[in-house]
Amino acid sequence: MTSPLYAQVALDVPLFTALSYRVPDHLRDDIALGQLVQVPFRNRSKTGLITDLTSELDDPALAPKIRDLYDLVDAEPLLSTNDLKFLSFVADYYLSPIGEVVRLAIPSAVRVEGIKHYRRLPDDQRPASATPLPLDLADALASLSSEEPSPVASLREAYPDLTYHRLSELERRGLVEVTYQESGSLKPKTERYFKLLPRPRGTLTGRLGSNQLKILKLLDGMPSLSLPEIREHIPSPYSSLSALEDRGLITSWEEEVYRDPFENAPVEAPPEFDLTERQLHAVNAVAEARNAGRFEGFVLHGVTGSGKTETYVRIIRDTLAEGRRALVLLPEIALTPQFVGVFRSHFGERIAVLHSGLTPAQKFDQWRQIRRDEVDIVIGARSALFAPINNLGVIVVDEEHDSSFKQEEGTRYNARDMALVRAKLASAQVILGSATPILESFHNAQLGRLTYLPMPERVAARAMPPVDIVDMRRGPHNPTAGPSNLLSARLLSELDNTLHDQKQAILFLNRRGFSPCVLCESCGHIFECPNCDVSLTYHRRMEALRCHHCDFSLRMPESCPQCQHTGIERKGVGTEQLENHLHELYPRARVARLDRDTGAGPRLQQLLSSFRRREIDILVGTQMVTKGHDFPDVTLVGVVLADMSLNFPDFRAAERTFQLLTQVAGRAGRADSPGKVIIQTYTPDHYSLLTAQNHDFSTFAQHELAQRQAMGYPPFGHLIALKFEGTHEGATVQATRDYATAARRLLRSDRTFGDNIAMLGPAMAPIGRINNRSRWQLLLKASDRALLRRFAIRTLELAKHFEAGQPQHRNVRIIIDVDPLNML
Q: Where's the Helicase ATP-binding domain (predicted)?
């Protein structure tokens, strides 16, 4: 008797583990890891992914209760064994439901039930088979269209006795084309192609129109032409093509093509460059690890303008030459077109892009190209980490310090950290590149866990821009403020010089809108968001007050709702006000603004392209202007208010300030003209500003690491934040306190925990309410990562106890944030 086989299936439901199902005997020979299957779940059928196959259960007593899985949805696995190991690690490390992690790896067009479609292949495209099809399968095949794909689910409705597994025989024999479509709306893109049919000389009868003659001339000597290619020469060829086809002079057919999100983007010839000594050292260090076939992580610490991109290109070129593939992770969608342009110039068209800015159809096409091994390089934001790349050789994480690599919804993974895990599973190399590496990476390099590759000079011996700090405190001994209430006399003078020299300037202010606070000068009423514990920001162009957390907005009132007074004051400054101020100061200058209000969708690339073409003289922006852009004619960078990020209630505030200032300063003087940087501040003696002024990462890191070590914060300790959110404030507070009480009991009762784990809180989050949800949190801290995780898991077990005894706790959402970055 054959021992039973069980499949662990990850379903898109809020469960932390995969569910066990028995594999029926008729499916045993065809089932494999990474396949999509249909299984019973409660009183319905669901599609899930097989993550493991085993002949033994953890608890054999449960065997009689295990149900059979229904069917195989896919004959071929969608993910490799390494991919599955990676997804399991992510789910386990971040204490996240496995189904939620699987959702990151497989697009919705492939996940949902009923997505598989069949199209019957014409007779001349089918392979010959000596074995006839069973009668029921032959009938099902005959019912399929050779033109339009049909859902396999509807085929099963017509033939109830045919399971997915039986129908997959049509796939195995090559009788059908398989596609995936979502809700009947997301389909593979097809293009019609035309070619001449052979005909004996002198057989043409009847006159031909001028367009028909043009088409025949275009097709003559060509294997085929697509409809768009013909339209380039003949604007409206449809009737002429139909007439030629009716007369048997040409033939046409449909072929699947991919949607290219950058099909209209220009590709320039790749620049010729010789590697510097430091760049060559980095390339050789990675090559040594690659030739040895070992995993290794590298911190590529290159100052702005040191040629990190050129180093990536050379490393990736060497990796592709070995027959392996590359993944490039970027922090912002805004950087993607710039990178894709560079990489297409060097590597051609075998590049895929993945990020949230793509349409579902584009994302669907890119994913299928990657899975079919039709690309060599994948470029994208953090979600691209889960792309199904086979034979992965190198992962590049550019601007690795950027907090955008941390997901703040769903599974709260950090793509930078998980890139190291994925590379280790693939015996690949990881390049963590930045001008300001995070202190965790820098510390690991000091300890030898990562290899440190410094690149302290700019290419072509260009000097780092000098940085001046301007004290904005207004007093009798500080006359630097000048005629503007926003810009110092020093910064205005440098702006004058820049415009006179016909160069460009960037002014950085990390706050959008016109004024961040609006209040009544009579009674002091502050206009606050009704859904969040934040003040509303005034946007002058829309003449509205807006919340930047929930997007609530209202028209700017003419009077105070409390006292009816008409004296409403706008306090503080944002990018919109700064832009208007510059228009007043420099009416002849071309001033533009780059923030989330002006840089949404295609407007972002239009704005960046205009600046690169020198159609803008002064660009005002938030941190979107700091993200690795290369503008050769920028010679002046001004930081209008450097203190904003220092005032955040976060132990990383000084590090983020140093990173922002260093990154934005690096936009100046990247070409032949030298650059200057002016930093305006009310705290001119802060060490993060002084070290940024001197481009001195080492001194900053030494100072900051000493403080972190004294407080037990990363990289010397590990954190897990337990965040509580609920629509009812009382229930949220009570749930947080109950958990804190139980956690303290656990710390007192188990000395292994109590002597090594600190718990901070319970406390209201710095922003106590967002989207009408009250927010409280606990912070767990320990030097031992494994011990901290065990303690967090025990607190999760307490959740079940509390929910059983306290029904109101069920309405409170508990978020587990491992290695949190956002403390707000």
A: 289-455
Same domain, 729 and 588: no
On whether residue 561 sits in a domain, the answer given is no
Question: CA of 189: how far to CAs of 260, 356, 627, in Å?
Answer: 11, 20, 34
What lies within 8 Å, CB to CB, of 540 at 6+ separation is 514, 576, 577, 580
The whole domain housing 140 covers 116-180
Query: Does residue 536 contact residue 518 with C-beta atoms inside 8 Å?
Result: yes
* Three-class HEC string of 554-604: EECCCCCCCCCCCCEEEECCCHHHHHHHHHHHCCCCCEEEECCCCCCCHHH
CA distances from 642 to 174, 506, 650, 661 (A): 64, 14, 16, 8
Whose CA is closest to 16, among 5, 8, 7, 6? 8
Q: At residue 596, what is the residue type?
A: R
pLDDT tens-digit series, residues 127-173: 877 688 888 888 889 889 888 888 887 887 888 888 777 888 888 88
pLDDT of res. 476: 45
| 103-122 per-position pLDDT tens digit | 888 876 565 544 678 888 88
- Helix, strand, coil distribution of the chain in percent, nearest 5: 35, 25, 40
550 known member of a binding site: yes
In the predicted structure, residue 605 carries a pLDDT above the cut 80: no
Residue where one domain finishes, among candidates 111, 143, 170: 111
Q: Is 517 annotated as a binding residue?
A: no
Spell out the residues 6+ positions from residue 751 whose beta carbon is closer than 8 angstroms to its own.
none
**Does 267 fall in a domain?**
no
Does the annotation place 547 within a ligand binding site? Answer: yes
Indicate whether 493 and 607 sit together in one domain.
Answer: yes
pLDDT tier for residue 527 given thresholds of 50, 70 and 90: very high
Strands (E), 284-343: 296-302, 325-329
pLDDT digits (tens, 9 = 90+) for 763-795: 999 999 999 999 999 999 999 999 999 998 887
563 belongs to an annotated ligand binding site:
yes
Within a domain: residue 549? Answer: no
In 135-243, beta strands by DSSP E: 150-151, 176-180, 189-196, 225-226
pTM, whole model, 2 decimals? 0.83
For the chain, what's the residue count? Answer: 824
What residues have CB less than 8 Å from 4, skipping those under 6 apart? 22, 23, 55, 63
520 is in an annotated binding site: yes
Q: How many Å apart are CA 410 and CA 105, to the nearest integer? A: 13
- Rounded distance, CA 714 to CA 316, Å? 32
